[in-house]
Amino acid sequence: MQLDMYINLLLTITGLVQVVTASKPQWVKISGPDEVVAGVSALYECSAICSRTCYYTWNVKGQSFPGSKFTLTENGVDTFISLACTVTDEDHKHFVSEIRSVTVINPVSVKPSTNQSVLNQQPKVGRSFCLTCDAASPPVTITWLKDGEPLTLDSRMSLSTDNGTLFFSLLEESDSGQYQCKVLNGNVSVISKAYWIYLGYVIVSVTGPNRAEIGIQSEYTCDAQCRMDCTVQWALHAGFPRGRFIAEGPKILWTPSDIGQTQVFTCITLNPGAGNIGQVSKIVTVVEARPRPMPSNAVLAKPSIAVVSSATLLILVSTCV
Ligand SMILES: *[C@@H]1O[C@H](CO)[C@@H](O)[C@H](O)[C@H]1NC(C)=O
Ligand SMILES: *[C@@H]1O[C@H](CO)[C@@H](O)[C@H](O)[C@H]1NC(C)=O
Ligand SMILES: *[C@@H]1O[C@H](CO)[C@@H](O)[C@H](O)[C@H]1NC(C)=O
Q1: How far apart are CA 76 and CA 10, in angstroms?
Q2: Which of 58, 88, 244, 307 is least surrounded by CB atoms within 10 angstroms?
Q3: Is the CB of 165 under 6 A from ligand 1?
């Protein structure tokens, strides 16, 4: 309705002042949902007002599609999609682009099967393990991917008859990797969110003094060595340290302000899927500063402000993504 009104208005104007309207397309607009579900098609429409005819082109993931309408069917690999609509007028001299960012919700995931014993809920070398492909609607065909490639079953692996469960009779270090399932309903396929199996060595250590002196900066460093890529993150299980406190990447710098505090600095090692694969804690007690030789005019600072520079501090994670 509104669009018709604009067109009528524009036609009226164009009749009157031809020179002014030979300009770039106006009112370029993308209509369609902000969120789509992987495997479910969504329709987008681009509209604009041009002096005569509008020509529309969609640009999605580096590909061009002509026309004002575009049907988006996502497979779940990307979590965000950028849709660009470019409008040109009849003589292709002017163009205007509009971009819409769309969130993709993936309803399919790979998870440790819930019907296995509690001992087996987390993958361990030498144990059996089950993964389930969790899809909202029963898919017609399920296939499995490891590290993005079709999974090759060996003698220690088997699939349920519907392929919905992947069973490892005995896990080995070489089973480490990213597992996904691909479900196919008719001609629409969805690739699930990933689950990481992480086996093999993880060595985590925290260095730094067990006794932190009041008013003196102490430094703590977490060091992790892993078979695959891993990152470290700090967690504070005994509350926030008083004094000047900075946690950044693998380092903590702490100048305590209050005597008698006890802190627990926990370093958590994360796999690429953000699963906790190992952690170590250090208990630190605040003690009086030892007397130090100092120039006579020096004043021992006693800071009382807490400084947090890491936003990732208190995020606690689980292995099941
Ligand atoms: C768990 O359930 C799946 C089917 O839902 C089945 O294929 C699998 O064998 C079961 N695993 C165990 C350990 O019972
Ligand atoms: C099970 O997976 C195999 C490949 O691993 C595939 O060829 C077959 O079609 C799948 N069957 C079902 C019922 O999904
Ligand atoms: C899937 O098939 C239906 C008709 O069976 C068709 O309308 C639709 O466009 C197809 N979707 C894709 C993504 O190819």
Answers
A1: 42
A2: 307
A3: yes
DSSP states of 144-201 as a string? EEETTEEPPP-TTEEE-TTS-EEEESS--GGG-EEEEEEEEETTEEEEPBPEEE--S-
CA of 192 relative to ligand 3 center, distance in Å: 20
The yes-or-no verdict on residue 20 having pLDDT over 70 is no
Diameter over CA atoms, the chain: 91
> Using CA atoms, how far apart are residues 55 and 48, in angstroms rounded to an integer?
9
Say how many Å lie between the CA of residue 164 and the centre of ligand 1: 9
Distance from residue 103's CA to the centre of ligand 3 (Å): 22
What pLDDT, on a 0 to 100 scale, did the predictor assign at position 71?
A: 96
| Ligand 2 binding residues, C-beta < 6 A | 141-143, 162-163
| Ligand 1 contact via 160 beta carbon (within 6 Å) | yes
Question: What's the rounded mean pLDDT across residues 162-185?
Answer: 92
Supply the pTM of this predicted model. Answer: 0.67
Mean pLDDT over 59-75 rounds to 95
Residue 203 CA to residue 107 CA, distance in Å, equals 35
Domains annotated for the chain, with CATH where assigned, are 22-105 (2.60.40.10), 109-197 (2.60.40.10), 201-290+300-309 (2.60.40.10)
pLDDT of residue 222: 94
Instruction: Give the atom of ligand 2 at the shortest distance from the alpha carbon of 144.
Output: 5
Q: How many CB atoms lie within 10 A of CB 289?
A: 15
Reduce the DSSP state of residue 98 to 3 states and report it: strand
Centre of ligand 1 from the C-alpha of residue 117, in Å = 11
Residue of the nearest CA to atom 1 in ligand 1?
115
What is the rounded average pLDDT of the residues 36-50?
Answer: 94
DSSP 5: H
Residue 222: Cβ-neighbour burial (10 angstroms; 0-12, 13-18, 19+): buried
Cβ-contact 44, 60 below 8 angstroms = no
